[in-house]
Design a protein that fits this description.
Blueprint: H1 2-21, H2 27-48, E1 51-52, H3 55-63, E2 68-72, H4 76-80, E3 89-90, H5 111-118, E4 125-129, H6 137-147, E5 152-156, H7 159-165
Parallel strand pairs: 1-5, 2-3, 2-4, 4-5
Helix pairs in contact: 2-6
Length: 174
């Protein structure tokens, strides 16, 4: 009888994989993961010198027609083309921190290309996002905008996952 219960549960856990197996973690064990993610985000934000914006705040800005530039830092074909925040422009950044400009990690685009996308108004509101909180692409984009002298730079840390999770509509490239 015990074999009939244990074996299916083991198979289920292996099938679900480690991420889904976290369902079996205690609330205390899950909090260790949450803490690590939160501290990483806080440190990146402090190091990058930008602000943070939530999905609901960004949605209210869009609905209120706040003038801003929204940049999706995900790969064009793999992500941006399939779903992005309405009105977002695409500019690829790598996941690991990019301390110096490297065209091989930005889809062949130069720092001048990025400056051109950002435009001449250094007070313009700029929102930069990627896939989800742990993704570092948006940190790179926001950090570089700040390095270039832009004053109102926001990282939408939850990215497209939080946008979809909130039930907001996405745009697709046709």
């Amino acid at each position: 009888m015990l074999k009939k219960i244990v074996l299916p549960v083991l198979v289920l856990m292996l099938t679900l994989g480690t991420a889904e197996a976290s369902l079996f973690k205690s609330k205390f064990e899950k909090e260790v993961t949450n803490e690590a993610i939160a501290v990483k985000l806080a440190r990146e934000t402090a190091r990058g010198g930008y602000n943070l914006v939530t999905a609901s705040e960004l949605k209210s800005w869009i609905d209120g027609k706040k003038p801003m530039l929204i940049i999706d830092t995900m790969p064009y074909d793999a992500s941006y083309k399939k779903a992005h925040v309405p009105g977002a422009k695409q500019f690829l950044f790598p996941i690991p921190e990019m301390r110096s400009w490297d065209k091989s990690k930005t889809g062949g685009k130069s720092l001048e290309d990025f400056k051109s996308l950002l435009g001449p108004d250094k007070n313009r509101t700029i929102v930069i996002y990627c896939g989800f909180v742990k993704c570092g692409r948006s940190h790179n984009g926001a950090s570089w905008a700040v390095k270039l002298g832009y004053k109102n730079v926001y990282r939408f840390a939850g990215g497209i996952y939080a946008w979809k999770g909130a039930g907001y509509e996405v745009e697709k490239v046709k």
